[in-house]
Design brief:
This protein is an alpha+beta fold. It has two domains: 299 residues, 2-methylcitrate dehydratase PrpD (Orthogonal Bundle), CATH 1.10.4100; 221 residues, 2-methylcitrate dehydratase PrpD (60s Ribosomal Protein L30, Chain: A, 2-Layer Sandwich). Helices cover 53% and strands 6% of the residues. The radius of gyration is 22 Å and the shape is globular.
Length: 544
């Protein structure tokens, strides 16, 4: 790998330490309100997860006493144990938020809320900490997009997000913030697929690094030093966590806001199931479908969804709340039976009681790669960000090397692109799309005038993550009903993020909190800049 010479760690740390509340745009603060509701809702939804209940039982029995609430139970514990319980519950049903690129809320929301409550921090500082953590964690995931980890397995983003959020609330200067990053990333967490795809250990994917990130900031505050060039050092972070790093993603601080790309999941499960479930729910809303009359369901989707489902199907024998998040067949089966996909529908008790019926329906679901949806994703990102920002100076050989390394890690069936079909589709695409695809795949892109590519100037408010899907339900009568979606509900370009966040919060909070407290939390989250974090947590926590 060619050494990255830009002072990435120093520039990042300077921005985090000097970010003022007035420099956080109102549109970004609005996204944070929706993110807070989503994170709190996911924690309460974890009551349906047996692995989450195991974590909560351990925290209650063995956690250190403290005054910070574990939201799903109301038990008061130390910062580390409250963070463990809350962040693990957010991961339990894959009901978390995500943005470009990373599932940042486990650290970007929980750390500022909990540490902010412990320090009685100014709510405006808590908002700054949330924004900073989102921006750092999302960019770090994007910089490592072409690497061995992906999605929630970018667990290291929570080391950085938590370290930056805590550094901000502890008042560290740029040098000490760089120390905190250097300490946090000196021994970065590295999730393994076998421990993530199925076992309950996946719940610790974000919680463990978030705790370590806070500890790193406190150690830096106490005077411990860390490598202040940890990201860009030739033997440093990017060298180890990307097959081909994209350092241009660690730029544009304060000019481009990845928080604007926030998406709130309307359903438990991987984000790649959302458009398929949206389409299926439209079918069921238009006319009732008796699951017994369903002969087959064909889901045509992008490569991302196909790869997710391939990994999820390998875990179908487990059929637990921790294993079904990536299995589109099971998600479709639950939706056909219930008319919706909810946390209650994925409860371990329900999955066990109706195992035979669910597996029978899931067995009738076929997931196929459709190059058009994959092209939609690539062309959208290239068009909104610009090919130079998205791919830097990567050329064809770089992409082939990434594909080879990915298949070595995920198995020979991974990234089965169907290249012949792709070449045929390439000829059918509009000229603009063909040009953008060729720009990404077949030519090395020159650096922009004045230096390397940067996110500066990118309008992140126009960047979404399209996961297109076409769902066709074939009935035994011979009829086929089809619907298609490109952007899922709750995504920034769907225009309904705030509505979905409120709907999600109400659905998961009404039972444990009641209507009055549910409404109060909603009002407090809408006014984060004036709401003490301790007050918000107390209102959101179940009575112990």
């Amino acid at each position: 790998m060619k050494a990255v010479t830009a002072p990435l760690t120093a520039e990042l740390s300077r921005w985090v330490a000097t970010l003022g509340f007035d420099r956080v745009p109102g549109r970004v603060r609005a996204r944070l309100s929706g993110q807070v509701l989503s994170v709190l809702a996911a924690a309460h939804a974890a009551r349906h997860s047996a692995p989450a209940r195991a974590v909560l039982a351990m925290v209650e029995a063995h956690g250190a006493p403290g005054r910070l609430p574990v939201v799903p139970t109301g038990v008061r514990r130390s910062l580390a144990d409250a963070l463990l319980g809350n962040a693990a519950c957010g991961m339990a049903l894959d009901y978390d938020d995500y943005l470009f690129m990373g599932h940042t809320g486990h650290s970007a929301i929980w750390v500022p809320l909990l540490l902010g409550a412990e320090l009685a921090a100014d709510p405006r500082e808590v908002v700054c900490a949330m924004a900073a953590a989102n921006e750092v964690a999302g960019r770090l995931g994007a910089a490592c997009l072409l690497g061995p980890q992906n999605g929630q397995l970018w667990s290291f983003i929570h080391l950085a997000g938590a370290a930056c959020a805590a550094s901000r609330l502890l008042g560290l200067d740029p040098a000490r913030t760089a120390d905190a990053l250097g300490i946090a990333l000196a021994q970065p967490n590295y999730g393994l697929f076998p421990g993530f795809l199925g076992p309950g250990s996946k719940l610790l994917t974000a919680a463990t690094p978030a705790i370590a990130g806070v500890q790193a900031a406190r150690l830096a505050a106490a005077g411990l030093t860390g490598c202040r060039t940890v990201l860009e050092d030739p033997r440093g972070f990017l060298r180890h966590f990307a097959f081909r790093p994209l350092p241009q993603m660690l730029s544009g601080w304060g000019e481009a806001w990845v928080t604007e790309t926030l998406a709130v999941k309307p359903y438990p499960g991987c984000a790649y199931v959302d458009t398929a479930i949206d389409a299926l729910r439209e079918i069921l809303a238009a006319e009732p479908v008796d699951p017994r009359e369903v002969e087959r369901v064909v889901v045509q989707a992008s490569l991302l969804t196909v790869e997710m489902d391939r990994l999820g199907r390998e875990q179908r024998g487990r059929l637990s709340s921790a294993s079904v998040a990536f299995d589109l067949g099971v998600a479709v089966a639950v939706t056909l039976l219930d008319g919706d996909l909810t946390a209650r529908g994925l409860a371990d008790e329900r999955l066990a009681a109706e195992r035979a019926a669910l597996l029978d329906l899931a067995g009738r679901v076929r997931v196929e790669h459709d190059w058009r949806f994959t092209a939609d994703t690539i062309v959208h990102l290239a068009g909104r960000l610009g090919p130079d920002r998205l791919a830097g100076n990567l050329g064809l050989w770089d992409w082939l090397a990434v594909r080879r390394r990915s298949r070595e890690l995920l198995g020979p069936g991974a990234l089965d692109l169907g290249l012949r079909e792709g070449l045929r589709l390439h000829r059918e695409l509009p000229a603009v799309q063909r040009a953008r695809l060729r720009g990404l795949l077949f030519r090395r892109l020159a650096a922009r005038p004045g230096g390397a590519p940067s996110l500066a100037g990118a309008d992140m408010g126009q960047v979404g993550l399209p996961f297109g899907a076409r769902v066709s339900v074939g009935l035994r009568s011979g009829r086929t009903i089809t619907r298609e979606k490109l952007f899922p509900r709750g995504s920034p370009l769907a225009g309904d993020l705030d509505e979905v966040a409120r709907e999600k919060w109400r659905r998961e909070a009404i039972e444990p909190l009641g209507a009055a407290r549910t409404a109060r939390v909603e009002a407090l989250a809408a006014d984060l800049a004036r709401t003490p974090p301790g007050e918000l947590l107390e209102a959101a926590a179940r009575e112990g």
